[in-house]
Design brief:
- With about 550 residues, the protein is α/β, with parallel strands linked by helices.
- Among the domains are: about 140 residues, Resolvase, N-terminal catalytic domain (Rossmann fold, 3-Layer(aba) Sandwich), CATH 3.40.50; about 130 residues, Hect, E3 ligase catalytic domain fold (Alpha-Beta Complex); about 70 residues.
- About 45% of the residues lie in helices and about 10% in strands.
- The chain contains 20 helices and 16 strands.
- The strands form six sheets. A four-stranded parallel beta sheet has the order 2-1-3-4, with helices on both faces.
- Strand 1, helix 1 and strand 2 form a beta-alpha-beta unit.
Length: about 550
């Protein structure tokens, strides 16, 4: 499936599965060993640079958004002609989503790359292999859906019995019946709640107090680390649990503004009495909720920021869609990766200490809006219409139409001679001339017709450019999605690729041929040139130009 004299590398992908009700039985190390063995059996190179692992935490195969290594692997497939195959331990390690998997199959088919699964042993170079592969993916998706339903049923059952489900809250350890019991960190929880309850103290202030008192937080690996504001927020958000209840919502979704009292909040969140011993009484819990509600009421309210580029903005290194996110008061609105940029930057060979991979929203949006600020002088519009008419006349398929037009013009000339010599009267001349002239006009219109709806595209471009300059943020966001299909930005905030919408591509290509910095080829510009550099800049980011006549 491809030229193996140049395709000699195998990309190995491993993923630590998201399993809530049991251990992931196939570790990343075992997956990698099996994949290496398969690559060696095919004599493919598979060094450390060809290993892509989503093994930090648990990465669900139902989506690609939170798997930076998978995104980086796909990005490499698109640019590396030496890749012969992608090797996975099993198909569900690559994806549990049929839609994402079919898109991936299309990608490897275009690149001439094989997919090797150690467990299923399929060869995607045959039609039957691809068909069976699709069937297996549907079955894998069904199994994943059924597993999710079983997990949800298990959670509901345990909550109904008063057993806490999920990560064990700080200050507890579970006994043999999986019921949380207070541990050595329980005093830190009590002191945190008691110090926060009087009010007037933020999370960072409480964290400093706990650290000075000798208390330590527990990280994901169970190691003691200093408290920070996020650790304190976690304790405060779980106050219902520490008061002996099992909330019906997640702790981070708990909203103190939903109720005035502790009991009202229990009712509003659908909480149930828990079997675990409480670390605080309801009076202290209510004081904590009141203090948090007061601090939220005093917190400064910022205006809602409209992120103009979220539908179309992607990372140029890993291909992941970037999202708009509000940072601190200093950083403000910015665009960043959903899962953090570190894995993407490291995969691209960049140092996260030197470049952040996040971009200030205002600066990037201003750059894009400036790129699309296209104003067309009347002389350029006249040149554009003349160029399209000349191109249509020069088409080989129009030779017959031109010959017919020439014969009609010859008949018009002979008709005039007959009239001047008196061989026909005025009425016969006028009637015959009108008939021939109508036929010639029809041929000229057919010959001069544009190969795409030029006037409609010009009107649309002008209207959109004006609204992008003076419209509301919501209008600008909608219009950007109509003008661009995709926008890629690198780690330094530089636009590396801009893909115009399909309707605009032929028009922009013709404008580029008229611009000073473009390549006009055989097209001459009789009256003027497009002095604005925006069209040429946009085309330079859009890849190969649209051939003349392509719609």
């Amino acid at each position: 499936m491809g030229n193996h004299s140049t395709k000699h590398r195998a990309l190995l992908y491993v993923r630590k599965s998201m399993v809530r009700h049991r251990r992931d039985e196939i570790s990343p190390e075992r997956q990698l060993a099996a994949c290496r063995a398969a690559a060696e059996a095919h004599s493919w190179e598979a060094g450390e640079g060809e290993v892509y692992a989503d093994a930090e935490g648990h990465r669900s195969g139902r989506t690609e958004e939170h798997r930076p290594a998978w995104q980086a692997l796909k990005a490499r497939l698109a640019v590396d002609p030496t890749v012969a195959a992608v090797v996975v331990n099993s198909l569900d390690r690559g994806s549990r989503s049929p839609k994402d998997f079919f898109n991936f199959l299309d990608l490897i088919h275009r690149q001439g790359v094989e997919l090797v699964s150690v467990t299923e042993q399929f060869d995607t170079s045959t039609a039957i292999g691809r068909a069976f592969l699709a069937i297996l993916m549907v079955i894998a998706s069904l199994e994943s859906d059924l597993a999710s339903e079983r997990v949800l049923d298990t959670i509901a059952h345990l909550k109904s019995r008063g057993i806490h489900w999920g990560r064990t809250p700080f200050g507890y350890t579970r006994d043999e019946d999986a019921i949380p019991q207070p541990d050595d960190n329980a005093p830190a929880v009590r002191e945190c709640l008691a110090y926060y309850a009087p009010g007037g103290r933020g999370f960072s202030h409480v964290a400093e107090h706990l650290n000075n008192a000798g208390h330590r937080w527990r990280d994901l690996d169970g190691e003691p680390v200093p408290f920070d504001r996020y650790a304190v927020r976690s304790i405060i958000s779980n106050v219902l649990i520490y008061a002996g209840w099992i909330p019906g919502t997640r702790g981070k979704d708990l909203d103190p503004s939903k109720a005035e009292t502790f009991r009202e909040l229990v009712q509003a969140t659908g909480a149930l009495p828990g079997l675990h011993p409480p670390l605080c009484d309801e009076e202290l819990a209510e004081a904590v909720l009141l203090a948090r509600r007061r601090r939220r009421a005093l917190a400064p309210r910022r205006e809602r920021y409209v992120y103009l580029l979220t539908p179309i903005l992607y990372c140029a290194h890993c291909g992941q869609q970037l999202r708009g996110k509000w940072g601190s008061r200093q950083t403000g609105a910015r665009y960043c990766h959903y899962t953090g940029a570190r894995a993407c930057l490291e995969a691209a060979g960049l140092d996260p200490a030197e470049v952040s991979g996040t971009h200030p929203a205002g600066e990037l949006e201003e750059q894009v809006l400036g790129l699309l600020d296209i104003r067309l002088p009347p002389a350029v519009l006249a040149d554009l219409r003349q160029v399209l008419a000349a191109r249509m006349l020069a088409r080989p398929e129009n030779e017959e139409l031109q010959a017919r037009l020439g014969r009609l013009e010859g008949k018009l000339g002979r008709l005039r001679e007959l009239y001047l010599e008196g061989d026909i009267d005025r009425d016969e001349y006028a009637m015959t001339r009108a008939n021939l002239q109508a036929q010639a006009d029809e041929l000229r219109a057919e010959l001069g017709a544009a190969d795409y709806p030029l006037e409609a595209a010009l009107a649309r471009l002008g209207r959109m450019a004006g609204e992008l300059r003076a419209g509301t943020p919501e209008q600008k966001r909608r219009l950007l999605g109509l003008m661009l299909d995709r926008l890629e930005v690198n780690a330094w905030g530089e636009i590396t690729e801009a893909v115009p919408a399909e309707w605009a591509r032929p028009l922009l290509a013709d404008l580029g041929r008229l611009s000073d910095s473009g390549d006009p080829g055989d097209i001459k510009c009789p009256q003027g040139t497009l002095t604005s550099p925006n069209v040429a800049a946009l085309l330079s980011l859009s890849g190969p130009p649209v051939p003349p006549g392509a719609v």
